[in-house]
Amino acid sequence: MSNVQLIDFHAHVLPGMDHGCKNITECKKQLSLAMSAGVSTVVATPHFYPHQHNVASFISRRTEALDQISRLSQRPNIIPAAEVLYCKGLSDMPMLDSLTIGNTDCILLEMPFSRWKGEYFEEIDRLINLRGYKVILAHVDRYSSPDIETALNMGCLGQLNASAVKPIFNKIAYLHWIDRGKIVGLGSDIHGTYYGYKEYSRAVKALKSRTHGIMLNSRNVLL
């Protein structure tokens, strides 16, 4: 897979934004690990909790964190984004456009880990069909497969965490979603430096040719 440009689609690397990275020193180590794993682009996805955060304040802090990273001499390309936690009425939230991935109309949405209620799907439908967003579900491996199937059939896309991909890859649902073109990102979901990019690198190898397809999907989403 040496000829594939690797994109980490879900990473908590912005200093001081959430529990993923404490400061610029830790951020520098995280980004060094990413480059050592062959990652050329990192989608920076700090947690956004609608019940805790104000969008304007969140964007201000994110801008400051990105400014710190811009001073690093060696680093991968950083695309600002957010991991937006689902809440009732999210589709009506002011300034929601500020939380999309880079300059795209894509939102990385973190859903509840319990089985999803009908109102959850209704909110997703409003995000897609009323607000015009492309909804990418964060770490689809953590949710109920039937719920993911329903969401994918509604038009959602998915991001898969590298930790879900084992050397003996027997997650048939994941393979099915990948082969249908529904998985548009492979994420380290890195918090700190303890695991680094070991799981990400293992996933790249385990997925073999499917890695190339996922990375192409990532690039198409980020264009």
Q: What would you note in describing this structure?
A:
By secondary structure, this protein is of the alpha/beta class. The protein contains seven helices and ten strands. The protein has helices spanning 24-36, 55-70, 118-129, 145-154, 172-179, 198-207, 209-222, and strands spanning 6-12, 39-44, 47-48, 77-80, 83-85, 106-110, 134-137, 157-161, 183-187, 190-191. Strand 6, helix 3 (118-129) and strand 7 (134-137) form a beta-alpha-beta unit. The strands form two sheets. Strands 3-5-6-7-8-9 form a six-stranded parallel beta sheet. Strands 4-2-1-10 form a four-stranded parallel beta sheet, sandwiched between helices. Helices cover 37% and strands 19% of the residues. The chain has a single domain (6-222), classed as TIM Barrel.
Give the strand tally. 10
| Number of discrete domains | 1
Derived from helix and strand composition plus strand pairing, the structural class reads alpha/beta
Low-confidence stretches: none
| Tally of helical runs | 7
Q: What share of the residues lie within helices?
A: 25-40%
What percent strand? 15-25%
Average of the residue pLDDT scores: 94
CATH topology-level name: TIM Barrel
Tell me what the CATH architecture is.
Answer: Alpha-Beta Barrel
Strand line-up of the largest beta sheet: 3-5-6-7-8-9
Q: What is the 3D form?
A: globular
What order do the SSEs take from the amino end to the carboxyl end, as H and E? EHEEHEEEHEHEHEEHH
